[in-house]
Design brief:
Blueprint (H helix, E strand, L loop, with lengths): L13 H25 L3 H31 L1 H7 L5 H19 L3 H23 L2 E3 L3 E2 H4 L3 H30 L5
Antiparallel strand pairs: 1-2
Length: 182
């Protein structure tokens, strides 16, 4: 049972809910890992502990998601572990191990690099396994794309928007990231 969407897809299945918890735990892990560099003293140690807890939760939830996928999303699990995506997922798991080792041993900068690489690689692997479906099996990425005029407008307006926002971001980082703000 679950809440059924208009397309006939169930959104409140154990698999979907477990993926949601996995996403939240992953974000908490990234935040704690990144904040270990931004702080010092007892607060830094607190964030390191939080990184350990959230990293452990992420690993446990990833195992739960894979176990549930074996029952509810076999098509995805097969594609995730295929020859095409396995090298990406394998590299992500190596980064996971490096990140965990770095967090446990107090190497905050290395943990941050490994954590970022881990998440990027696992998301790329997920995307490769999901492709060409946006929502399996009813909606592909091509079907989900906006109309061509909208996409053209978006692509052409991005440089203008970036030019307007870049100075503000520079100032924001200058004020908040500098030890001695101007």
């Amino acid at each position: 049972g679950g809440v059924q969407a208009a397309s006939g897809v169930f959104w409140l299945t154990p698999y979907c809910i477990a993926n949601g918890f996995l996403a939240v735990a992953t974000c908490a892990y990234l935040a704690a890992t990144y904040l270990t560099i931004e702080t010092d003293g007892p607060l830094q140690e607190d964030f390191r502990r939080r990184a350990i807890y959230s990293g452990t939760a992420t690993a446990v939830l990833a195992a739960v998601v894979l176990a549930i996928a074996a029952a509810e999303a076999t098509w995805f699990l097969k594609r995730l572990l295929s020859w095409r995506t396995a090298p990406i997922i394998g590299a992500g798991l190596i980064c996971f191990a490096g990140s965990a080792w770095s967090v446990f041993t107090g190497r905050a900068r290395l943990a941050r690099m490994f954590a970022a690489a881990e998440v990027v690689l696992l998301i790329v692997g997920w995307g490769m396994a999901q492709y060409p479906h946006f929502i399996y099996p009813s909606l592909t990425f091509a079907q989900a794309a906006g109309p061509t005029p909208t996409l053209k407008f978006l692509v052409l307006s991005l440089p203008v928007g970036a030019a307007l926002i870049a100075p503000s971001l520079w100032l924001l980082f200058r004020v908040f990231k500098s030890r001695y703000p101007a």
